[in-house]
Amino acid sequence: MPRTRAANSQARRPQSSAALERQARRFLELTMPMVPQIFRDLRETCRDADVVIGGPTQPAAQMVHDATGITFVSLKYN
Fold first, then answer.
1. d(CA 75, CA 78)
2. 3-state DSSP assignment of residue 52
3. Residue 59: CB partners within 8 Å, gap ≥ 6?
4. Structure pTM?
5. 12 vs 6, 7, 8, 52, CA distance in Å?
6. In principle, which of 29, 58, 63, 65 could form an S-S bond with 72, CB 3.0–4.6 Å?
7. Phi, psi of 73, rounded to the nearest 5 degrees
8. Angle at which helices 59-68 and 35-45 pack, to 10 degrees?
9. pLDDT tens-digit profile of 31-67?
10. Minimal CA–CA distance to 56: which of 70, 33, 77, 26?
11. Distance of CA 41 to the CA centre of its chain
12. CA-CA distances (angstroms) from residue 4 to 7, 9, 10, 14?
């Protein structure tokens, strides 16, 4: 019998702050070298846009807003 979503979430333990810090550091190590190219591509893509939508893991969207003045909407979801 498959486990239900509730059972799965109860089985998970919260991550320690050290584990979260390692995860965040690794994410940044992998993604930060790509940000300049992502920024250039996104700025070109949004050239005629009325709004740019991004999230906490997409710093280039905020950067495009800062550079161009295009309205920026940040979404956070769980």
1. 10
2. strand
3. 35
4. 0.64
5. 10, 9, 7, 35
6. 65
7. -120, 125
8. 50
9. 899 999 999 999 999 999 999 999 887 889 999 999 9
10. 77
11. 16
12. 5, 9, 10, 19
